[in-house]
Design brief:
Shape: globular
Largest sheet: none
Number of strands: 0
Number of helices: 15
Helix content: over 70%
Distance between the termini: 17 Å
Oligomer: single chain
Strand content: under 5%
Length: 399
C-alpha cells in the first residue's frame, strides 16, 4: 500500500470511526434546551444518550460477526444508511419517547463505522504497522467525543437542537459516499470461508476463551465508562452548576482534546520500545489517581478549577489507553477481527449506557458524584489488568 493509499484509508476509516462518537456527543450541549423544549425530566433526557450507546453496543455485536462472514463493505453501507434514516427521524421527533427510539436506531446504524474500520485495519496490517494504524484511528476515536460537543455548541448558535440531527444525517451520507467510491473489500471470500474460524460460533469461541482478550475488554470498557461518566455529567455540571455558556462548555472540551492528542500520540511512539500492556498499566494508575483527586477537591469545595485540573489528567490518561487496548485485542485475532472489535465495542458502549443514567440520579451540586463513579471504574480497570490480563503473560506483538 502506497503512502497516498494509506493516508486515504486513515482519513476515510477515521471518519467512519468518528461517526459513533459524533452521533452520541454532538447534541450534548443541547440537552438543557432539548429538555425544556420537550417538557421532560433530566433522567429521561439522559436516557436518550443511554439509548444511543445501547444501540451502538448491540449493533456492534451483530455487525462485527456479519462482516467476518460476508465481507466489510456491505454491512458498512447498509448499517450507515440506517443511521442516516434514524437521524432524519430524530430531527422530526415530537416527544422524548420517539426521540429515544430513533436515538437507539442511530446508535445501531453507527455501529458499523467503529467495528468495521478496526477490522479493515487488522485485515491489512499486523505487528508494529498495526500499532501505527490503530494509533491513528484511536486519535480520531479519542478526539471525536471531545470535539463533538464543541461542534454542537457552535451549531446551536445558528440552528435549533433539531438541526444537529440534520447535520449528522449529512455527515453519514458523506461517509457512505466515500466508502462506495474509494474503499475496496479487504476480506475476500477465501478468508471468509477458508479458515478454521469460518463459523460464528468458532469465532466467538476463539475470542471468549482468550484470557488476555477478556481482561483487556474489561480494562477498556471500564476506562470508557469512566470517560462517559464525565461526558454524561459535564453538560449539567459545567453549564448548570458553574454557569458555562454552550460556547465556554465547548472550549472546555477543546482543551481536554489536547490531553487526548498527547495521550494517543505518545502511546503510539512509546509502543516501539515499551509493550502496550505496560503503557496501559501506567495509564490506568494515573486515571485512578486523577479520579481520587476529583473526589477530594470536590469534597473540599475547591470549585471549578478543582475539578478541571485532575479531569484533564484523567482524560489524557484515557488517550494513552485507546491505542493500547485496540492493539492488545486485535493483534492475536486476525481471523475474527470483526468479532473481536465488535465485542470490545459492545461492552464499552453498553457499560457507558449504564453509567449515564446513574450519573443522572444524583443532584450535581459538585463534581463528587462524577468523580466517585470514575474511582469505581478506574479501580475495576486496575484490578482487571493485574489479576486477569497479568501484563507479564502478554506476548510480544511482533513486527
Amino acid at each position: 500500500m502506497s503512502s497516498r493509499q494509506r493516508l486515504s484509508y486513515v482519513l476515510i476509516l477515521g471518519a467512519l470511526t468518528a461517526l459513533g462518537p459524533f452521533t452520541m456527543d454532538t447534541y450534548l450541549p443541547s440537552l438543557p434546551t432539548l429538555q425544556a423544549d420537550l417538557d421532560t425530566t433530566t433522567s429521561l433526557t439522559q436516557l436518550t444518550l443511554t439509548a444511543t450507546t445501547v444501540g451502538f453496543g448491540i449493533g456492534q455485536l451483530l455487525v462485527g460477526p456479519w462482516s467476518d462472514r460476508v465481507g466489510r463493505r456491505l454491512p458498512l453501507i447498509l448499517a450507515t444508511s440506517l443511521h442516516i434514516i434514524a437521524c432524519l427521524g430524530a430531527a422530526l421527533a415530537p416527544n422524548i419517547e420517539v426521540l429515544s427510539v430513533f436515538r437507539f436506531l442511530q446508535g445501531f446504524g453507527a455501529a458499523a463505522g467503529g467495528v468495521v474500520a478496526q477490522a479493515m485495519v487488522r485485515d491489512l496490517f499486523g505487528g508494529r504497522p498495526l500499532v501505527r494504524m490503530l494509533s491513528n484511528l484511536a486519535l480520531v476515536n479519542g478526539l471525536a467525543p471531545v470535539i463533538a460537543p464543541v461542534l454542537g455548541s457552535q451549531l446551536l448558535l445558528i440552528m435549533p437542537w433539531r438541526g444537529i440531527f440534520w447535520v449528522l444525517a449529512a455527515y453519514g451520507a458523506f461517509v457512505v459516499g466515500c466508502v462506495a467510491l474509494w474503499i475496496v473489500e479487504t476480506r475476500p471470500p477465501s478468508a471468509r470461508h477458508g479458515s478454521a474460524h469460518a463459523t460464528v460460533g468458532a469465532r466467538y469461541k476463539a475470542v471468549l476463551t482468550d484470557r488476555i482478550y477478556i481482561g483487556i475488554v474489561l480494562v477498556g470498557s471500564m476506562n470508557f465508562a469512566g470517560l462517559f461518566a464525565y461526558l454524561s455529567a459535564s453538560t449539567f455540571l459545567f453549564q448548570d452548576l458553574y454557569d458555562f455558556s454552550p460556547q465556554q462548555y465547548g472550549l472546555l472540551f477543546a482543551v481536554n482534546s489536547v490531553g487526548i492528542i498527547i495521550g494517543v500520540q505518545t502511546a503510539g511512539r512509546l509502543s516501539h520500545r515499551v509493550g502496550p500492556q505496560w503503557i496501559l498499566a501506567s495509564s490506568t494508575a494515573v486515571m485512578l489517581a486523577a479520579a481520587i483527586a476529583i473526589v477530594i477537591t470536590s469534597a473540599a469545595g475547591l470549585g471549578v478549577w478543582g475539578v478541571m485540573v485532575p479531569l484533564w489528567f484523567f482524560i489524557c490518561a484515557c488517550g494513552f489507553g485507546f491505542p493500547t487496548v485496540g492493539v492488545l485485542t486485535m493483534n492475536s485475532h486476525p481471523h475474527e477481527a470483526g468479532t473481536a472489535a465488535s465485542l470490545l465495542g459492545a461492552f464499552q458502549f453498553v457499560l457507558a449506557g449504564v453509567v449515564a443514567p446513574i450519573v443522572g440520579l444524583f443532584h450535581l451540586t459538585s463534581g463528587l458524584p462524577m468523580g466517585a463513579i470514575m474511582v469505581v471504574t478506574s479501580t475495576l480497570s486496575v484490578l482487571g489488568l493485574w489479576f486477569v490480563v497479568r501484563p507479564k503473560t502478554v506476548p510480544d506483538i511482533g513486527h
